Amino acid sequence: MKNNNFIKNVLFTAVLSAAVTGCDFASAPKDEIHSDGKTMGTFFSITVVGDYPGGQKGLDRDAEEVLHKINKDISTFDKDSVLSKFNRSKSTEPFPITQDMADVIIESLRVGNDLNGATDITVGPLVNLWGFGPKKVNRDGNPPTLEEINLAKANTGLDKIHVTIGKDSAYLQKDNPDIYIDLATVGEGYGADKLAELLDRKGVQNYMVSVAGAIRTKGVNNRGKDWVIAIEDPSNEHAVGRNVIVPVCTKGQAISTAGSYRNYIAGKDGKTFSHIIDPSTGRPVEHGTVSVTVVGPSALWTDAVDTGLMVKGGEAALKYANERNIAIYVVTRNANDDGFETHYSRAMHRYLECE
Ligand code: ADP
Ligand code: MG
Prior knowledge:
The protein is of the alpha+beta class. The chain has helices at about 15-25, 55-75, 80-90, 100-115, 125-130, 145-155, 185-200, 300-310, 315-325, 350, and strands at about 5-10, 30-40, 40-50, 95, 160-165, 170-175, 205-210, 215-220, 230, 245-250, 255-260, 265, 270-275, 275-280, 285, 290-295, 325-335, 340-345.
């Protein structure tokens, strides 16, 4: 990347991490502070334009503290996190959780219900069954049986978990001992929001925060212009350098992308299985929509919405977005399957017009 204000909103995080640290750092202008590293099994990156209290060290330390707390709450990569303990527990009694965790779960349930269950944080048993969970399952390219799918489906559903909030307490409860909550799809957006909250608290006026491509922006970049985030061109899927399908000017909003073309498992006969699962069928999505990008007020929200819209597929996603004035950008395989088409909702127009 030559221009370090042009951050790719990619769908495969590890490669972006290398690209950001490798290229941006070398050319970082003096009036920016960067902090980046690993979190929740993926990467984060922060760009602050201007000063930060305590400078680089202060930013590194504060970001680490914020992310450590999130990991301790909701990471399934951390066996000792509150969420991992809840998932292991077979008890159907109320389980104490933190207020922050309650916030994430309540918001995820709210968005999921509005999407008719297309985003479902209880999809964990299905995610694990198809081999996308923390434990990798080797099925030699064979999909799970119908019986296995139905069994896992019986343990999923937004109505099967309950959050209760008291004055100084919060509890999570499962209807069934085998319920397993997967916050992977919203955790990144939530992380970006929490880092943005930190920067707001410290009085930073201009910043860009990314947790695995779930991005929050505020103010302007170091050239005084709106932040520009690129949606990746999926035809370049095996390349290390990424092509850009369209630049998006976020105008202070959050942006994130759900995609099925980078994270998938190759099955027999060249068939691939996406890591996005349709909770209604219990199977990976199979339509020709390869990515859905959402722009909106919080990264937790865009991250929850993009997954559900990926489940619904391009046409239904655009209908849903236009009925609610939500800004989305959809990339779909064309009818001949030899290229891609792009479509966007009415509300997306303004983010495609950069100064
Ligand atoms: P992307 O990599 O496309 O940005 P995310 O990492 O945000 O997607 O979310 C994908 C992950 O979310 C999957 O690996 C799985 O753990 C979980 N997941 C899959 N399908 C669903 C679904 N329908 N609702 C909620 N979470 C899902
Ligand atoms: Mg998502």
